[in-house]
Input
Amino acid sequence: MNPDITRERENATFDVEKLTHILDGGIEKTKRRREIESLVISDPDFQSEDLNFLSRSERYDAAVKKSAQMILKLREYGISDPEEIYCYKSVFRGHHHEALGLHFVMFLPTLYTQCNKQQFKKWVPLAESFKALGTYAQTEMGHGTHLRGLETTATYDPATQEFVMNSPTITSIKWWPGGLGKTSNYAIVLAQLHTQGKCHGLQAFIVPLRSMNTHIPLPGVVVGDIGPKFGFDEVDNGYLKLENVRIPRDHMLMKYAKVEADGTYVKPPSAKLTYGTMVFIRSMIVGEAGHALAKSCTIAIRYSSVRHQSEIRPGEAEPQIMDYQTQQYKLFPLLATAYAYKFVGQYMNQVYHRITGDISQGDFSELPELHALSAGLKAFTTWTASAGIEVCRMACGGHGYSRCSALPDIYVTFVPTCTYEGENTVMMLQTARFLIKSYRQASAGHQLSGIVSYLNESERRLQPQSVSSRPTVVNVNDLASLVEAYKLRAAKLVEMAAKSIQQELQKRVSQEDAWNNSAIDLVRASDAHCHYVVVKLFAAKLGEIGDTGLHSVLSTLALLYALQGIQQHSGDFLQTGLLSVPQLSQVSQRLKELLAQLRPNAVALVDAFDYRDEMLNSVLGRYDGNVYEHMFEWARRSPLNKTEVHESYHKYLKPLQANL
Amino acid sequence: MNPDITRERENATFDVEKLTHILDGGIEKTKRRREIESLVISDPDFQSEDLNFLSRSERYDAAVKKSAQMILKLREYGISDPEEIYCYKSVFRGHHHEALGLHFVMFLPTLYTQCNKQQFKKWVPLAESFKALGTYAQTEMGHGTHLRGLETTATYDPATQEFVMNSPTITSIKWWPGGLGKTSNYAIVLAQLHTQGKCHGLQAFIVPLRSMNTHIPLPGVVVGDIGPKFGFDEVDNGYLKLENVRIPRDHMLMKYAKVEADGTYVKPPSAKLTYGTMVFIRSMIVGEAGHALAKSCTIAIRYSSVRHQSEIRPGEAEPQIMDYQTQQYKLFPLLATAYAYKFVGQYMNQVYHRITGDISQGDFSELPELHALSAGLKAFTTWTASAGIEVCRMACGGHGYSRCSALPDIYVTFVPTCTYEGENTVMMLQTARFLIKSYRQASAGHQLSGIVSYLNESERRLQPQSVSSRPTVVNVNDLASLVEAYKLRAAKLVEMAAKSIQQELQKRVSQEDAWNNSAIDLVRASDAHCHYVVVKLFAAKLGEIGDTGLHSVLSTLALLYALQGIQQHSGDFLQTGLLSVPQLSQVSQRLKELLAQLRPNAVALVDAFDYRDEMLNSVLGRYDGNVYEHMFEWARRSPLNKTEVHESYHKYLKPLQANL
Output
């Protein structure tokens, strides 16, 4: 054990184990999580070479191997609870992806929810036994976010009772679905349904892609890998071009909409039912943002405690780089953010399960709010976490660029969450739509409830005259007071966005153009709303913590989170009259004090995330702090070191020397 | 040609070709640049498969091949002017690196400047004929920025007149130098010189690493590749452990310091002489930041003009995504920044050459200012450009993640500039040291000159009482007025940092601790100083533009750049009383107008950067806008598509299906 990191742990003022229980949601959950982690970590079948040493084809191969093994192991161990499966997978995947990910996340759930009874009986056993290896093909080369724009067609032919599937243009080629390129022999394909000369919009169809015996693509199916990406090396994201592929009528998923034998289209009863999965996945991503940032902070903070560099006081030994104020200012607010997002993730999970219960009883009333919240928070947390991972990486200096730090892998694996499952700017604008709608309702005298209820107050309290005359009451040492300030900022920015739309309308532009011409303000309002929600939930979490030591350190983190947000957005708080200039200096001063206060607990706070070395897979983030020996050992395994002299010497350098 | 992008070009209001001349520094330079580019692009020897389809070993192989070819070509074409060589190389490298980069950038220049006459005669011909393939080994596993901390030793043995080179600890192993792993047979090694029982600090030594005949590592030399990184796949960044390697006395570079035969150490005459290269490289990086951002903007803006998505007005066709205000707000300020950095790069280049002239005549007076300026601007521009590349990438939606967009390569190739040649936070603090020193001189009544002369005024004008009472005079439509505002902001933030140090000192902490406890404020002050310099230089450039059309569009860009900076740092401008709250609303409004104003010229403004398709190597950034056909074509060449069925199917999936 590195003595620096041992000393850090000795100086901590709280019980790390207890904090781990809080993060897991209880001592029993911690215990079970660790059992599952041990199953994976101690399993010799899962020992493999660092993926970074492999070619892309080898990485894909290794991922398929692992996925196949995992399926057998889960059955062997009898792990079937979704949360436990999730836990098992997140250990065995490491920072990477599962080859059969879409089969589990999209193919099976879509079959479960959109098959009618006969279809269920046929397809679910095939999928559960992996005879049908499936993916979900929605996105096309020319169409992502805007589903109505999708071009793939399914034209019903009553003569044969088949759908004829086509990719009529180059932009209609399915593009990006994971597992589509090489792995899947089936896909659920989203296509525009044409029957009896009319288009009825998007429906889902089960399309066989490859022979179930030979895995060779079927006639009319042009399928393959879309090529290397920024990360995701082990996934065969694919393309799919359909050329008059005929599938039987009962391959359209018919639980809701139907096409009868003669081609008659029968409408689905409600459109709300497909909402759920999307909301669930976005809620999960919020937790993932906390997870990715927590891993990054663990690596950067442990490394900062063992890395010595430069000097603060001349003549003294090189200090730990964590002693530099600038290093603390980079890392500690991100550490606070990681805690915040973990707690928000817990909250989203609870809300989701509560509302799902309501929905199954036919009560959809909270769905729009959850939809708006999950969209905005997904964007808010993934943007911040992505940028934060890079800050952590660069805070490790040169070694942060080495793949042995794991930080490059964490970044390229996480950053796509900014784009998939709803592009972030689009997500922010969806939340804004809900905020503006709520604001207008409040303005019209309706009493709002739920998370937007603050917009009721805004009508009363945020009149232009009152802003400047309202006495500033924010106490920068009091979290409740800061939550209030965030709330009023959100209210003010929602109001400003609404007024911008109003002003645009007065220029006689259309509603739609007024919206687009106010989009910058709308995103800003959503951002402020989400920021308020996060601060509020962090503060609420403190209320649940009884232990004094824990409460103290988490309060420091929460205060740091809130104050750093104020400093970063000081213009908003000054502009809206929520803070005065002298208070802003207090904020800066207080931030520095909080950094110093957190310094002795920094390592313990990342220890509490409880990532085992085998999960972090980072030389810089090792629990024992013995970084350099292991970096050397790792480097010696680099494929370029397999021979003393690389063949390029004989091929190019020796001839060059001879030529000159 | 895609009709959308054709229409964009038809709508431009200025002469693209003329703007290209300005960016190149004159019509003749444009002409010559294009000639050189054509040499590379039309050369069949340089045609190669996309590096993204290759394994790391193959990429390294391809890079060595290209470097060897390039050396012969440059001789064949008689290109010897450094600027022309730089141009040639930047085309042939693309977004990647040169295998022999360090040989040219560090090994040769160090020999040129630090050899004495006899050494020069021996080593320069060996290096110029590539018999000696060299690199520069400074950084160690445990030591980067802080040179005094380096641990490698060179102990003089008068008995044999040799230096004994050693890596005494694991942290002393040389780590990171490019070309060290496999390519080089020599290295200039920085080591602590020990002679006659005393350590005389760092000196440079020529150390043979590999046999000049067989390329096999010499006895005592443990050398290899440090393993895969975030980018730089084609470079063999290496490690070097020296175990009692003996080299003759005359392998120490002795132009300045010397060790005589008996071991007597002779001090160098001046320490300033080694300053120059560092300043030069940092100045170059500023230009590179403009370059990287310009390439990214070219890709994202061209793609945004041909990509259609969603809807603004219901019922109408999907609009070009560049019509969304949020997309404009992401890209156009970055476009303005790219222009700003290109102009700042030109300026740094001129200043460097002017000051180098002075230095060669013994006048070092301007060196500290240039040193401070290049350090801060290097940090300021590389941070912004790195984040900006990622914004451009994500503005391309899913396709920005494909390696065919080139944006991942641009990012991973550029982002290390934040860390190498001086870690950015350290750089900011070096600039801050100069600013604080200047501020103290001004406070003591000295009249400052040069770029910091504004600190003279600050003493007179920025007294606390005057800040609040000073009438706000900033005109948000007038660039000169905005330059003034940036200047006063910088002055105020330098003052605040100085006062923070003062306050710390009053707590009876040491100077060094006071500095560290104010580091956040110091970085902020440097940042504001650099921002002021960039705005000022952009405004100054406008003064050189005679053409009305060009002047108009560049003025719009400059105004956008200045106002967006104010919006992003609105807290500073409000806090220092430079702007009022109503003015801030004006800034937001004006920004939106400027976005709309730039919209018709966006494609033409990136066309003016004049990157040929072969240099961008981006399917999304193609000049003809025909994105989708070429993306499909590129994907089909993916190595995973070489076989219809991947071997993993037979190895893992078929057995799995049989097992269940």
